[in-house]
Amino acid sequence: MAVNGFGTIGKRVADAVSKQPDMTLVGVTKTRPSFEARRAVEKGYALYLAASGSKSEFEAAGLPVAGRLEELLGQVDIVVDCSPDKVGKENAKLYREAGIPAIFQGGEKADVAEASFNALGNYDACRSKRTLRVVSCNTTGIARAVSVLAPRWEVDGWSVTLVRRASDPAETKRGPINGIMPTFQLPSHHGPDVRTIFPELAIATTAVVVPTTLMHVHVNDVHLRRPPGGTAEVLAAFRATPRFHLFAGWERVEGTPQVMEYARDRGIGFNDMMENVLWEEGVRLDGSDLHFFQAIHQESIVVPENVDAIRAITLPGVSGPASIEMTDRALGLRTTSGPRS
Ligand code: NAD
User: Fold this and answer.
1) 113, 134, 137, 295: which one is catalytic?
2) Per-residue pLDDT tens for 38-58?
3) How far is the CA of 37 from the centre of ligand 1 (A)?
4) Exposed (0-12), middle (13-18) or buried (19+): which is 124, by Cβ within 10 Å?
5) Which fold has domain 2-135+302-331?
6) pLDDT tens digits, residue range 187-244?
7) Which residue's C-alpha comes closest to atom 25 of ligand 1?
8) Per CATH, which fold does 137-296 belong to?
9) Which of 93, 107, 141, 279 lies at a C-alpha separation of 20 to 30 Å from 241?
């Protein structure tokens, strides 16, 4: 496979694919020389030119170039587009011309692909498609949680307030650096995006942006039609589901700084936290109403989903749970059927 666009998401997807026993990364693209292009070369990834990238510019930086994007597309079964928001739609034409399937990211509109994808949410419906869009970080986090609650206890209504990080850590041109900024789109676009996976879900979302780079936090209020017996049952369901990480009270994880310190300590991926993070003390069932917080590491949560989307398209005989298990084992995440690899 190929990764087109080797930035925050692309470099992580490339590494994740390289770790899978059934996938081969043929090459990645860059538009300009940068530290990330240098790291691609240092990791042994073949570097191709995207968009108006110039070979002489890379050669002047001492970075070998294997060819242009079009040549890379000629050698692969599938491409994962990780270019900036809205650029994927332009790139889609190139993939169609090359006659290869493609995966897009959440910065594209839903109509860029045949279906929106979330591994726990709608893997089966996405098998054998030729194009998929892995939904955004926030939508991925919500879709995973819906996959736990809806089949067990029937969701009557779901309200989420998204407390969004202002920028990724390496971005310096976004803000705020001091302020809490309401998003004056009421409700926010995240609810309709979740419905690209769960069309029937009664969900409304609102968002505020705050000056942090670490993670988003979702404040969830869910009304359940057939509620469980107590909070412990809800916690057990989250615990039994892959891609959820629960912190106990005694771990003293007070907020996102400690979550990301744990991630650095653990050292998976780019010191990432690819799971939905829940606090056991931050989940409470009150009759039919479930309240819980979850934290979402925006830079990495979609990475395992991209790996599964590749399998859903190219290996339709593999089931969703089998793909999730394979992906997570190779990445070093907790698997629900056995110890870490
Ligand atoms: P990024 O800016 O970090 O990386 C994009 C890369 O694509 C850069 O290296 C850029 O040089 C390159 N590029 C620019 N033009 C290109 C072109 N024409 N063809 C190929 N590559 C090109 O962006 P990102 O954060 O990795 O976002 C990529 C996609 O993933 C977007 O759709 C975004 O919405 C989505 N996404 C981002 C996050 C996040 O928090 N960063 C989370 C989930 C989803």
Assistant:
1) 137
2) 999 999 999 999 988 899 999
3) 14
4) exposed
5) Rossmann fold (3.40.50)
6) 999 999 999 999 999 999 999 999 999 999 999 999 999 999 999 999 999 999 999 9
7) 8
8) Dihydrodipicolinate Reductase; domain 2 (3.30.360)
9) 107
